[in-house]
Amino acid sequence: MDHLATTGINIGPTITDQDLVRYCGPHTPPRTDLVAVLQHWAQVRPDRVAFYFTDGDNPDADLQITFAELDEAARNVAGYLQKYGKVTPGARVLLIYPPVLDFVVGFFGCLYAGATAVPAFPPRRNRKGQRIHSIAQDCQAHVALTNSHVRQQIEGDANWVEWESISIVATDVLSGRDHAAEWEPPKIDEGDLAVLQYTSGSTGDPKGVMLSHGNLVRNCELIMVAFEPDPSSVGVSWLPTYHDMGLV
Length: 248
What we know:
Elements: E1 4-6, H1 17-24, H2 34-44, E2 49-53, E3 63-66, H3 67-83, E4 92-95, H4 101-112, E5 116-119, H5 130-139, E6 143-146, H6 148-155, E7 167-170, H7 171-174, E8 193-198, E9 208-212, H8 213-227, H9 244-247
Parallel strand pairs: 1-9, 4-5, 4-6, 6-7
Antiparallel strand pairs: 2-3, 8-9
């Protein structure tokens, strides 16, 4: 992995516990990692909508997921990865999704498995997937998460032979199976790697930036400082999830 760079900066706590109460209400989440944060809200506000996805061209495709549903879906994906994908803590897992709700499930499924999520945009029609192949080789990923539509597209690629070393898992197909009971909670430290985010590669090979669990939590805290939300606030974004501002 020759193209990895770490943020290398520990900015420390960005908000006080009192600020957290103001932004989140009396039941404040842990400040260690996003797995603990999601599990907290799944217990405290199980029926609250966590994410809502709307398709402007097809309103019938609008989807939503509550904190409890997302927690269960993440455990389901993580249980599958741990038992059948042979994914161990710290392993790199590609996320090859278009901007849909499936990405959120796959992302948290990676974190719940103790793996490192590596977001990458799916190969475009009539274009070879060299960028994804470069990323997969650089981060040494042997598993990729996607949905059934993209999996079909990949398997229909004339360069499919280049994907044969990677197990392609469609997480939307896993939704009907109960792997959540097989999930083994990983031990996560703030310094553990959560995400490898690769550059566009427009001026050379894509380079991975290492983001720890602590980095992500601190980033979320900075966002709260900037926007000053309250427990009823709703955020709206249309940025791609493989982009740094769209991811967090």
